Amino acid sequence: MYKLEFEKGVERTKAFKLECPEIVFSDATLLTTEKMQKFPYLLRDTVGEIGVEEVVAQCLSIHYRLSDVIAELFDTPCYFTIGHVETVDRLMFHQSEQDLSEILQSGINGSSLNIHAWLTLPTMEIMDFSLPTSYAILNDMKEGVGGLIATHADSLTGGMKYHPMLVGEDFLRKSGGLVEFGI
């Protein structure tokens, strides 16, 4: 279950001596069609017009910039989440605890960083504004470009799973990610 992994991510964040937002869980459903129809405009107004290829390397920046806007849209906290994604074929953006610790100590080197971020609501619904496009570009596919993932994490289909490792933006601050990505 995503919630259990998210809770472990919170504990890992604290064990790394990183600031972690106060987490308040909810059983509500926040991702409605009405709210999700606003996503393209929020993305454009917050991040600007970006090319498809730029999305591939900007998941940290995109989700960092969108976290407050999404929190405002839903009138609830929105948690910047770092971790990896599992598909039937492979693990994408996998970083072990040791890998994350080393990045934290040595700093982010954007040219070789293999890390992913998305947003999590208190309901454990997730929003990923970059993965479908990144996946499509990296696999030379037309399907998925411009797409997003917005659903309860436990409702994902086709063997896809999100694995939260760290919660909150402090990892970006302490590893130099805010500077590296011009955030």
Features:
single chain, about 180 residues, alpha+beta, Atu2299-like, 6-stranded antiparallel β-sheet, 9 helices, 6 strands, about 15% strand
Notes on the protein architecture:
By secondary structure, the chain is an alpha+beta fold. It has one domain (2-16, 29-180): Atu2299-like. Helix content is 42%, strand content 16%. The protein is built from nine helices and six strands. Strands 1, 2, 3, 4, 5 and 6 form a six-stranded antiparallel β-sheet that branches.
Q: Please write the CATH class name.
A: Alpha Beta
Indicate the mean pLDDT.
86
Instruction: Look up the CATH topology.
Output: Atu2299-like
Please name the CATH architecture.
Roll
The profile of the biggest β sheet is: 6 strands, antiparallel
Number of domains: 1
Morphology call: globular
Topology readout:
Layout: H1 2-15, H2 33-36, H3 39-47, H4 52-56, H5 59-74, E1 79-86, E2 91-92, H6 97-106, E3 116-120, E4 125-128, H7 131-138, E5 149-152, E6 161-167, H8 170-175, H9 177-180
Antiparallel strand pairs: 1-2, 1-3, 1-6, 3-4, 4-5
Write a compact overview of the structure shown.
The chain has 183 residues and is of the alpha+beta class. It contains 9 helices and 6 strands, in the order H-H-H-H-H-E-E-H-E-E-H-E-E-H-H.
